[in-house]
Design brief:
With 559 residues, the protein is of the alpha+beta class. The chain has 13 helices and 21 strands.
Length: 559
């Protein structure tokens, strides 16, 4: 997670390093420190530096102050930045600019560090020594090199999986253990459209996927930290369960629209996410599945957490017959989504298993009856025997890519006739240019634009299903089609427009990288022969950005 960019000009070459500084323990702590280092390679290269700082989504321009010795501060309300540079900067009213040149072996540094403005008032800032800033860069590179070595997956897909693991680590809050869905808000699913959401929060659903994917590749500490975060944030009252939380466990995520023009004119730009108050019944299944997986790893729920899990199962037994907003957080009329019903089944099933293995008392007859009723309802109302496919919702004729997840909780076997038919239907009805849509939006019922791009996580889910069904070459083709949409640094967005060759939605998208890891693990387990170009050693310590590459499998994407 250190970016190296090579600049070439008729007079020479220079390399620029960008990173968020980490220490030996991997904790950003009080530093919150962005560092840029420009280093001469050959000849001489001229640069211009323009530093425009804005606070509160552009509403607040900074108060700039010069503290001598190349130090400046930028203050906006209760926020402050301390800026240090080797460059002689010219201070405008709200901006800093400067020009400089580097020759071979020269180094120029720019340091931007978060500070509390009151600290600046109580004590004058100390100048930043070049050797100390260079040491911070070296420490950060060494830390990421060391961290990446824990990834246990070997073989064809290792380089890409390491990249996805690094992305998930970078999307995590080291103090709380939360992993946000994406680092951005309001990047549109369709340029100019209004399906623009704030994804800078942590979803319960992603917790289960994360624990599974990260544990499978040896990142146990991160998996356990995310599991603990979700358990802390969600525990207490099953009735007040939310589907997502802020990175510190915040529950109040009120959605507002900012008076800003978004990417390529897309509006609105949103802060907060109203989906946090939706009823999405699958999350109880995700929490019970998470606890079950961790029990199998020797971490059984204690008395307090068991009471919470017990209440979750009870709530599921009482409410599984209600319609909800589903996995895709529909803002239209609630429906009886099949995926949600199956996850209710999983919640009760895992509750029964945990009760038995952990010697806990449960109302076994009542829970078993509810589990049976859910299966019967899905098989009678959520399955089309003529087309041999599971359906998106009761009373619907549509299919949904979320159905590709049903075997992961054991509701149906990958090779069951119904699942084979579902995979075939998903490919037939949702495949566009080799990638998979979440579902078909026939008519918008929520007042939002009806267009939707292909969803990368769904294509990885398809690859995983095909691998388990023995269709290995097709699994590999789907996998490579999805991963081929990554940018030249191996970063995946939420969606992709194959015709325009354009990344869509928030970026980088944690769910896409989670699904990429899971599919790569499945393909590796089934020993699908692969293109050895993706096995390039990931050992240089920096990610390179040297212009468009043919694909992220080219071997030029390195740590």
């Amino acid at each position: 997670m250190v970016l190296s960019t090579l600049f070439s000009s008729p007079t020479g070459e220079a390399r620029m390093f960008d990173c968020l500084v980490l220490g030996e323990d991997g904790e950003p702590g009080p530093r919150c420190h962005l560092l840029r280092v420009v280093e001469g390679v050959r000849g001489e290269v001229d640069f211009q530096l323009d530093l425009r700082i804005r606070f509160d989504y552009g509403e607040v321009k900074p108060w700039l102050r010069h503290h001598g010795q190349g130090l400046y501060s930028a203050i906006g309300g209760s926020n402050g930045l301390l800026i240090a540079s080797d460059v002689d900067l010219e201070r405008g009213r709200h901006d800093l600019t400067g020009k400089f040149s580097v020759r071979s072996q020269d180094r120029v540094r720019l340091s931007i560090e978060f500070v509390n403005p009151s600290r600046l008032a109580s004590a004058p800032p100390e100048p930043k020594q070049p050797k100390d800033l260079d040491a911070r860069l070296d420490e950060t590179i060494r830390w990421w090199q060391g961290w990446s070595q824990q990834v246990s997956l070997e073989g064809t897909y290792r380089a890409g999986v390491v990249r996805s693991a690094i992305v998930l680590k970078a999307l995590s809050n080291s103090l709380s253990g939360a992993i946000v869905a994406a680092a951005t808000t309001s990047l549109p699913e369709t340029p100019g459209g209004n399906r623009n959401w704030d994804y800078r929060y942590s979803w319960i659903r992603d917790a289960s996927f994360s624990v599974h994917s990260l544990s499978d590749i040896g990142c146990f500490r991160e998996a356990d930290a995310f599991r603990s975060f979700i358990q802390r944030s969600a525990a207490g009252s099953a009735e007040e369960l939310q589907i997502m939380y802020g990175v510190g466990g915040e529950r109040r995520l009120t959605e507002i629209e900012l008076p800003l023009e978004g990417y390529r004119g897309s509006r609105p730009v949103r802060l907060g996410n109203a989906a946090s108050t939706q009823l999405q019944l699958d999350v109880t299944g995700e929490l019970l599945e998470l606890s079950w997986r961790w029990h199998l790893r020797g971490r059984s729920p204690d008395d307090d957490y068991w009471r919470f899990l017990y209440d979750l199962v009870e709530m599921t037994v009482d409410r599984w017959q209600e319609p909800d907003q589903g996995l895709w957080e529909s803002r239209g009329k609630p429906q009886h989504f099949v995926h949600s019903k199956v996850m209710c089944w999983a919640a009760i099933d895992r509750g029964l298993k945990l009760g038995k293995e952990c010697l806990r008392k449960v109302p076994e007859r009542r829970w078993r009856q509810a589990r049976t009723e859910i299966r019967k309802a899905v098989e009678e109302k959520g399955y089309d025997p003529k087309r041999k496919t599971v359906l998106q919702a009761f009373g619907s004729r549509q299919v949904d890519a979320a159905l590709l997840l049903l075997p992961t909780v054991g509701f149906v076997d990958y090779k069951d006739e119904r699942m084979l038919g579902t995979v075939a239907a998903v490919r037939s009805e949702l495949e566009v240019d080799g990638l998979i849509l979440r579902h078909r939006i026939v008519k918008s019922t929520d007042g939002l634009s009806a267009r939707d791009g292909t969803f990368l996580a769904c294509t990885f889910w398809l690859a995983e299903c095909l691998a388990h069904q023995g269709q290995l070459e097709e699994a590999r083709a789907a996998f490579e089609r999805a991963y081929g949409s990554a940018n030249d640094l191996g970063l995946l967005a939420e969606e992709y427009d194959a015709k325009a060759q354009e990344l869509l939605g928030n970026f980088p998208q944690g769910l896409s990288h989670l699904a990429h890891i899971s599919a790569a693990v499945a393909l590796t387990a089934f020993q699908v022969p692969g293109n050895e170009s993706d096995t390039a050693a990931v050992d240089s310590g920096v990610a390179t950005d040297q212009g468009p590459l043919s694909s992220p499998q080219s071997g030029q994407v390195t740590l």
